[in-house]
Here is the input.
Amino acid sequence: MRGLLIGLAAAGSLAACDKSLTAPDTAGVCWRLAENGPNGKPEFRPMAPGVSNLESCAVTLEGLHLRTGAPVTGGFQGRYIFVTPEDITAAFSAKSQRYRVFTPQQRAKVRQNIEILAKRERAGG
Here is the structure.
């Protein structure tokens, strides 16, 4: 029993030292979370500079989601952004309460506009 308690105490102290990943708070930069950074751990990588607000970053991440078909996690000025097939949400941390960024109707319009831009790009204009 004593060994179990010592093991639990050690595990608890190690967990306290483990910093959870936070979204970068650099002003105007939209970030994308890469699951495998150089050290094998998730890390945020810059995706787009000069982004004016969280909604614009969410649109950028939605474009990536549409291209890859995979869920995308990103960040903007200290907040997480989650893009899934179901919706686009944001939160102050990876585990905190999420709130919707776009209504389903707004998201449909965003997707429509992304498709228009993608068609123009493919056409060379």
In short: The chain has one domain: 20-122. The longest strand covers residues 43-48.
